[in-house]
Amino acid sequence: MKYPPLQAEARKRNEKVFLQMEEIKKKIQDFKVRLEILKGKLKLDEKKQLITSLHQQISSEGFWNDQVEAQKLTKLLASCENDLKKTTDFENQTLSLEEMVNSSDAELILTDLSREVGDLEKGLEKLETVAYLGGKYDNCPAIVAIHAGQGGVEAMDWTQMLQRMYLRYAESKGWKTDIVDLIAGDEAGIKSVTMTLTGDFAYGYLKGERGVHRLVRQSPFNADKLRQTSFALVEVLPEIEETEVVPLPETDLEWEFFRASSHGGQNVQKVSTAVRLKHKPTGIIITSQSERYQERNREIALKLLRGRLWEIEEERKSVAKKELKGEYKKAAWGNQIRSYVLHPYKMVKDLRTGVESNDPFAVLDGKIDEFIDSELRYLS
Description:
Layout: H1 5-42, H2 44-58, H3 67-101, H4 110-131, E1 142-148, H5 153-173, E2 176-184, E3 190-198, H6 202-206, E4 211-218, E5 227-238, E6 253-258, H7 266-270, E7 274-279, E8 284-288, H8 294-321, E9 336-341, E10 347-350, E11 356-357, H9 360-364, H10 369-379
Parallel strand pairs: 4-9
Antiparallel strand pairs: 1-3, 1-5, 2-3, 4-5, 6-7, 7-8, 9-10, 10-11
């Protein structure tokens, strides 16, 4: 049947509106399903009970006598309440959107509804990302060590570029950063650097960055600007406080004290504030020279050692039972996880998740959230 031009156009417009409305309704149903899955992952029923229990403990007499334990519990309470509030807010927003879609004015505000759906989807994705941060040490500070690999001066420069990338990412998160140890390159860049990043779920977010990072670019250190490939190894460990999980008897430790040779100021270099710690059973050697006081450097060295020993134990368990996703791979040479290409084209690609970016300079400026989010889902 043929329709007059104006009528045909109106009919076509109505069909388009109908399809858009159906798509929005499908999205809302999808949100509801994903939200129920999310509640299970976040264990909200358990957290509601825990919130009640924590409020009772906080209001009890003598709660603040142990300041360290009290702060730990109040932080846990804030985290639980935050998860509950965000999911409740999202649920209310979804129900409100559903009412708007089913109202008689829905077609008149179609543009607003589409925008609201887009905003809700972004919010849900953020909530889903947090749900993957449920590991035992995910909320610990992160110890990030970067080591130059093959490539000479190029690799040392690449190591410094990676250091800057993680520091800029930490800055965007509002985290505190501290350079614990740094060995400068002979001509440029750095041979290796160890730093701690302290903030909410720092280790949880960064644990997927472990592995070899590869850079391809025109060499800035070569007059002919030849294409050069460089490698750097990134290690990420949780900063673990003293516990029975990682016992460190004094008889297993060998201490050496020396004057700091790098950053820290003149006061650091006048006295032997830097420490070198050797763990006799494993041969692991830790250096810390960032602080002005020897005792503080000792504390940092012990935390770094606990992280190393925890990693060894985790690797032993993983080798024994394998990972659910396949054979366990250590963050070591040969296990490349990401390529950064600046020449002959521009692209950053994660070789595990397939996530790509055509703006490597933004990535190297610390904009790595897309990669981090996909890693969390890949590792879960």
